[in-house]
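Go through this chain.

——
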Amino acid sequence: MEFEYRNIVKSPLSVEELTDLANLGGIPVQSLLNKKSKTYKELGKELEEYNESAVASFLSSNPKAIIRPLVVRNSELIIGFKAEVK
């Protein structure tokens, strides 16, 4: 399987790319926030109340606050991962 890897910390996503990803997934940009990240915890839940473009701008400037991994496959957005439960 071919894939393109992008380190979003070293090469952050633009506001437009974040908005496009959210649209692809049919989700608000706020859903791309990693609520377990240090950056998110420092700012608190106030980020969830920002409008879409403000959150996208914040995430573009603070890529460690983006939930990872983000995978686009066949025009489908897959967000994060869940450990296999046995």
Remarks:
- Strands lie at 70-73, 76-79.
